[in-house]
Amino acid sequence: MRPIKFKPILKQTLWGGEKLVSFKHLDTDATQIGESWEISAVPGSESVVAEGELRGKTLRTLIEEMRGQLVGEANFRRFGTTFPLLIKFIDARQDLSIQVHPSEEIARRQGKDHGKTEMWYIMESDAGAKLYCGLKQKITPQQYEHMVEDGTIMQAVADYEVKEGDCFFIPAGRIHSIGAGCFLAEIQQTSDVTYRIYDFKRKDKDGRYRELHTREAAACINFRVENNYRTEYVPAENQGVNLIHCPFFHTEVYDLSAPMTLDYSQLDSFVALVCLKGQATVTDDEGTRTPIASGETILIPATTRTLYVEGRVKFLATYV
Fold first, then answer.
1. Residue 289 falls in the annotated catalytic set
2. Which of 170, 197, 275, 303 could link 1 by a cystine bridge, Cβ 3.0 to 4.6 Å?
3. pLDDT at 110 exceeding the cut of 90
4. Residue 169 is part of which domain span?
5. 147: helix, coil or strand?
6. Are residues 28 and 122 in the same domain?
7. What are the binding residues?
8. Can you give the pLDDT at residue 17?
9. Which residues are annotated as a binding site for Zn(2+)?
């Protein structure tokens, strides 16, 4: 059971930028790449192994063959052959639409498999880049519909100028949007359900306004107002720093300048390492050495007990 690398799934978008090609060292002439899906089990966009003896196999096939050895016994009982997380890098040249995602309960009532809770970790973004997260003033569902209709909904949405290292948790029901100039890593439940609330009255390449989902979104929105939607944590070198612990995933950030052993002997789950900066060699307890560099993501099987990480590197470690 070796660490696994997958081929990135590149998504060209109207709002996509040019950062991902150089960040991931891609050999492509494609432009406006808004997203690189690093590990995905979304139907129609499923990850395929990039190298080694498993090359060409899909993520679902791996889980069917390896079951709990790959994802963890509890995860296999809970999710079956569906990998529970979708991991992405996102480069926004323009503002994305204002949107919201349903909870598990609401998604099932609406005929969807899963809701969507997610998180963002900000990487080196443009100066002055900002994003939108949560409500900054109390509004009722009726006021929400009127504000969407007359184009004033942005007056109620909190905005944040961001810098590298900022983290935001977006539970289902929280209004949000990635702003122009943001470059980030996203970890979310395996779900592609998004309800578009407001799109700045932009038109698509065919000159049409994109569809809004005002009513569907209204059923999902959490109208509670909080003082701060940014995740507060204290950065530290050469140790794991907790960012998010929620029912759907747990994520830590590591900023290493010295070798470190990560102990997963008590963890019944896969671990995904999402490399944000630098490079390192990862050695598992069976002696398998795997290089990782900025822009790469590797999947560590649940059977792995320890990882020795050697290099100057910054990465997210996420598991369920």
1. no
2. 303
3. no
4. 4-231
5. helix
6. yes
7. 101, 118, 176
8. 95
9. 101, 118, 176
